[in-house]
Write a structure and sequence with these properties.
Blueprint: H1 2-6, H2 9-27, H3 32-47, H4 50-77, H5 103-121, H6 129-145, H7 156-165, H8 168-185, E1 208-212, E2 216-221, E3 233-236, H9 254-259, E4 265-270, H10 282-300, E5 306-311, H11 313-327, E6 333-339, H12 357-370
Parallel strand pairs: 3-4, 3-5, 5-6
Antiparallel strand pairs: 1-2, 2-4
Length: 376
């Protein structure tokens, strides 16, 4: 009996969970095991690919020779044809100062190096698609972090400003960094947020709570026009967002835009999760969130069909709810408008770099401790 108690599976599993939680806290929520396995996959297959190694060596030699010729020509004539151009959308080297020697050589060297690392981390036979994406993604983050535009003495724009301000800009930057670190260590909000106050210069469109339950409050905003549109609008964002993401300042508030054009707007304001909500899932959010809001609106404005707007994860939830309503023959929705949700998960983009069994297990363990996933 003693051995059985000592080897209790739940107790041992909890030890594993606590270990995983500690790792997650140190790694910022990124699974070290997942990243290590990706790099092991890449390293082993690259090590067993002499042809790829030869190709990378030849590319490195050619790039070095091109950069050397470019540097020599630029130093002697002040002009030279660039070896490589930035990728579309990369505006880090748009400042005219990057065209002057020696900054032009620095930027060209970085771009050639970036291209080489892309070649080195992709196209290796045998490496899984997930591992390849993870290795290139992390390599790209390191490259971006160490780009010359982020190094003061290698950035011509910063150099010019430093000369003009006699170093005052560097002193300000150091002070900003010190303040950011102080606030981070004390778990305080970032500097400047105190300037935004709900009800004063944020979320100032007049509204009232007309329904609430365990998960949310439903806010109603009345039209400001004499003529009122018959069908109301229901808006919901992701539950990690505040409702006023769609009601910021008057000049960029979607809510104000709609009420000023005669629409009655309803907004779901999600509650902040607590430990006692640990057993709530997506179905609860559908029933107590989207469906409860639709039911409440139908009682306030009976017989009216509802235009719905879903933002981010709120759009995914709205899509699920709409599909369930269609299955049940519920035709209360007049339309669905989606802002930035993902409804096709075949190709999810860069987030797929982090989504594997190891990462999901890490996130589940971190949520097991508190009952929810914190913002840090």
């Amino acid at each position: 009996m003693g051995d059985r108690h000592l080897l209790d599976s739940d107790a041992l599993e909890n030890i594993d969970r606590m270990t995983n939680i500690a790792l997650g806290q140190m790694s910022g929520g990124i699974s070290p095991a997942s990243l290590a396995m990706a790099y092991l996959d890449w390293t082993v297959h690259l090590a067993s690919s002499p042809g790829k190694q030869f190709q990378l060596g030849a590319k490195a030699l050619r790039k070095a020779m091109r950069l050397g010729a470019y540097a020599l020509s630029s130093a002697m004539t002040g002009k030279a044809e660039p070896c490589i151009k930035p990728l579309p959308g990369d505006h880090r080297f748009d400042h005219p100062g990057w065209e002057r020697y020696p900054y032009n050589v620095v930027s060209q060297g970085f771009l050639l190096n970036q291209q080489w690392w892309h070649n080195a981390t992709t196209g290796i036979r045998g490496v899984s698609k997930h591992a390849e994406a993870a290795v290139w993604f992390t390599a790209k983050q390191i490259l971006d972090m160490t780009a010359p535009c982020n190094i003061p003495f290698l950035n011509p724009e910063i150099a010019e400003t430093t000369i003009q301000e006699r170093g005052a800009n560097l002193a300000r930057g150091a002070e900003f960094y010190r303040e950011d670190m102080r606030r981070s260590l004390r778990e305080e909000k970032p500097a400047g947020l105190e300037a935004f106050r709900v009800g004063e210069n944020l979320a100032i469109t007049p509204g009232k709570v007309v329904y609430r339950n365990l998960l949310m409050e439903l806010i109603q905003y009345s039209p400001t026009t004499d003529t009122v549109q018959r069908e109301p609008v229901l808006m919901q964002s992701a539950w990690m967002m505040k409702y006023y993401i769609l009601d910021l300042s008057p000049h960029n508030s979607l809510v104000k835009y709609l009420v000023d054009r005669g629409h009655t707007v309803f907004m779901i304001s999600w509650m902040n999760p607590r430990a006692e909500h640990r057993n709530l899932g997506m179905e609860d959010y559908r029933k107590l969130g989207t469906m409860a809001a639709i039911d409440a609106i139908s009682e306030i404005l009976p017989g009216r069909r509802i235009h719905t707007v879903g933002y981010c994860l709120g759009g995914i939830l709205l899509t699920i709810a709409a599909a369930a309503m269609a299955r049940e023959g519920d035709d209360r929705l007049a339309s669905i408008t989606l802002f930035t949700p993902m409804t096709d998960f075949t190709e999810v983009g860069e987030i797929d770099v982090f989504m594997d069994a190891s990462e999901v297990t890490l996130l589940e363990d971190m949520m097991w401790e508190k009952g929810y996933l914190g913002h840090k």
